[in-house]
Design goal:
It contains eleven helices and no strands. It has about 200 residues and is an all-alpha fold.
Length: about 200
């Protein structure tokens, strides 16, 4: 299992095959199948191991806003740093297990902030959608896929003359994802949380 986990972390889920695991550990493929089962069983076992090692989600800060913000920022960071785990969980249809941990922590803090019912559910989902959207787009930039939809070059060529020059110039620069995430999270928390 350790060899499979290393391969997933190094090559991604798509890079794992039972033949590669067999070669890595020096066993015949039939022996690996005998001990670990098929690829799906192996992937699920690796995910179980990883999930068992995850530390509990802890909110930090003295105010509800600070505590909720800390959970959301840490979820983004954890998903970005743990992309192989996220992709593994999605591959085996268990991505909800990673998200649910964050949902529970946020639900607890939203309750402490005085939100409940549909309003709290909408806020929780909005926060998760912000995290998910940023993680997805940041991963596309990291892997080079963002070139397919990046528009900085279009802004730089000046064709959008009806747009104010300062905005065109700003849009021609690549985004600072950390600053943009902080900006987005701050505005969302301003809009949805009661004052502390």
């Amino acid at each position: 299992m350790a060899a499979a986990r290393t391969m997933i972390e190094r090559d991604g889920v798509e890079g794992l095959s039972m033949r590669k695991v067999s070669a890595e550990v020096g066993l015949a493929p039939t022996a690996v199948y005998w001990h670990l089962g098929g690829r799906d069983e192996l992937l699920n076992a690796v995910l179980d191991e990883v999930l068992g090692e995850l530390p509990p989600i802890r909110a930090t800060g003295r105010t509800s806003r600070a505590r909720i913000g800390s959970i959301v920022r840490s979820a983004r960071r954890d998903f970005l740093e743990g992309m192989p785990v996220l992709l593994l969980a999605n591959e085996v249809g268990r991505g909800d297990e990673l998200s649910y941990r964050t949902q529970l922590a946020l639900a607890e803090e939203l309750g402490r902030a005085g939100l409940d019912g549909h309003e709290a559910a909408d806020v929780l989902r909005a926060l998760l959608f912000v995290v998910g959207g940023f993680v997805m787009i940041e991963e596309q930039y990291r892997t080079g896929e963002a070139d397919d939809f990046a528009t900085a070059g279009r802004w730089a060529d000046g064709a959008a003359a009806e747009v104010p020059p300062a905005l065109r110039a700003a849009m021609a620069r690549p985004p600072d994802a950390d600053a943009l995430f902080a900006f987005t999270l701050d505005r969302l928390l301003d809009a949805v949380l009661p004052p502390d």
